[in-house]
Every structure is written in C-alpha cells, then in structure tokens.
What does this fold into?
Amino acid sequence: MTTVVRRARGATSGAGRLALALLSPTFVVLALVVGYPLVAALRESVFREGTDLDESGFIVEGSKFVGVDNYASIFAGEAASRFWNAFGNTTVFTVITVALEVLIGVGMALVMHHAIRWRGVVRASILVPWAVPTAVSALLWRWIFQADGVANSIIGQEILWTTEGWHAKLAVILADVWKTAPFVGLLVLAGLQIIPTDVYEAAKVDGASPWKQFWRITLPLVKPALLVAVLFRVLDALRMFDLPFVLIGNRKESVETLSMVAFDEASSLRFGPAAAYATVLFVYVVVVAFVFVRLLGADVIGEARERSRK
It folds into this structure.
C-alpha cells in the first residue's frame, strides 16, 4: 500500500514539474511584457524630472525621488481639478456608453439570431462598425459633426459639436456606441445560439408571452455571455483615448479622460506625473474588474476552472 502511495505521489510530482517546465516560457513572457512595465511605471511615478538646487546651491538636472508627491499633487495639489475632471469624464463615458451599448447590442443580437432571410448580410452589416479602426471611425464622425456636416443638416441647427461643452460629450458617446455596440451584440448572439429551442417550445405550450419568454428564459440564460461582454466593454471604456482625441482634440476639458491626461503629461516630458496618472488608472481598472468578477458573477474563467477540477 505504501509503495502504491509513493508511486502515485511520484507521478503527481513528475506531472507538476512537467507542467511547470511547459508553462515557464509563458511566465517569462508575461513577466517581460506585463510585470516589467508595471514595475517600471510604479518606479517612475515616485520620481520627477527637472532641475533643482542641491544642498550646496548647485543646479542639479535629471530625475529626483519625490516619494508620493506626484500622487498628492494629483489628488489635492495643483493638478487636482484636472484629474477629477478627467476622472468624471472617464466614469461618465463608461457608464453611459456601456449602458447604451448593452441595450442596443442585445437588440442587435436578437435581430441577428431571428433573421431568417439574408442572415449573412444582416450579420455582416451590423458588425461592420466594429471592424472599422477607432481612429478612422473618429474621423468619420468628425466629418458628420462638423459645422456644415450631416448632423447639423438633419436637426436644422448649427452646433459646434467638436468644441467644448455638452455637445462634445454627446458626440463622443454617439460615436463610441455606434462603433462598439456590435461587439456586445456579437457576444450576446453567441449566448443566444446555445439556448435549446425546446425551452421556448415548452414556454409557448404554457402560454408564455414573447416578453415573458425574453425576461424569464432568454435574459437569464444569456446572462453569462452578457456579463462578460459588459466586463470587457467597461474595461475598454475606462481606457478611452483615441476616439475623443481624434474626434474632439487634445486638451479639451469636456472630453479629457485619464488616458489623455497621462499622454499629455508624457508628451510634455513630465514622466513622473504621467506614470502616476497611469498607475491610478490601472488601480481604477483593477478595482472595477474585481467588483464585476466577485459581486456580479462575471466568471470569465469558470469553464476552465470546472475542467481543471474534473
């Protein structure tokens, strides 16, 4: 009996060493492309570039260790108003665009799922905006929102969409929803296609209305795919940069996001504050992802974990 146990433990230990050896290249790559940039950003965020006087009164150039001064400046210093404005813009864009994309994306998925004739054409036409590069779609919407563009022609007014104000926010929200709602629709469509038709036939026999079928059958069964789509979109929206940057422009208070502030600081060679902004945004993204996974049940690795248990 003891010999059998020893052999079993030896086989398990051998399999573990083999798995570790096979996964080692992946760990090395992750350490280089994920771990090193994070550590470098954290280190840079506690330094500040520039000139200063040392104890002897001589001018000293280069990086200087400032501890948490860059973070203190962001939250309560001279840059606080700009940070909180960018934080508010980032949060507003994330909440509104993701909410609209979920509603429109679910509608798109239902249309694509129930389309009988020209199904391929319908699905391709709905997914085209998602395939367009973000910078290109921003240029397209910039043309639509210019003073003599299509948007003003439709509503019969002359609104300067690409300047400061609520209309700039609205332009960014419309452009982002147009581009990324098909992504949500695509993931929800994948969830719809695995729902057995027997469930709907049984509901029809019981006299369930189409709305009850959607509310009691479709929505609960498509919830895992929908939560994953929402999680991906929230994380992507929190990093929004290229769309408002190209559509509205840089240093526009109405649409400036945390990513744009970090880019602007880095472009001005203030790498320490830029790294501090990037670190704060990273923590914000991690907290939101943790809340989604733990509280709302967006289990993106559930199937893999179940397979490992078996």
